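Dear Dr. H.,

I hope your travels went smoothly. While you were away I took the liberty of generating a structure for the chain from your last submission, since the lab meeting agenda had it listed for discussion. I wanted you to have the full record in hand beforehand rather than looking at slides cold. The sequence, exactly as received, is reproduced here:
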Amino acid sequence: MNKVILMGRLTRDPEVRYTQTNNTLVASFSLAVNRRFVRQGEERQADFFNIVAWSKLGEFCSKYFKKGQQVGVIGRLQTRTWDDQNGTKHYITEVVAEEAYFAEGRKDGESSNSSFENTFGTTMPSEGDGASDFEVSASDDLPF
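The corresponding predicted structure, in token form, is as follows:
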């Protein structure tokens, strides 16, 4: 099984590009993930992971994720190689994101589409698209 679960802070805004073959959106960014333990007398260490998100998830990440935000990413590890112009072989290991979530509350002054989006990393269907038979308003008393 190949599954990676990370929570960390973005080291930069997601960078968007499109594939040459079929114009598919690809967003890439890096996460700084604190190590679990700190040695006495030392500062906390972090590991830096390259993340790649494709298509709709990549669009979501590029639109809503910003440098410094704490996010959660679930995905898989992938290693790829390529040769540069000089014939030198390069290797890279990256996380291919399958799910992405906000991992901290909204800061004052920041706007967000909904609390559902903050929790699940996606937006609810809009009204009139036929995807939902009911509507829940903020004033409804929910049992959870």
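Two observations you may find useful: The chain has a mean pLDDT of 82. The two ends are 33 Å apart (CA to CA).

With kind regards,
E. W.
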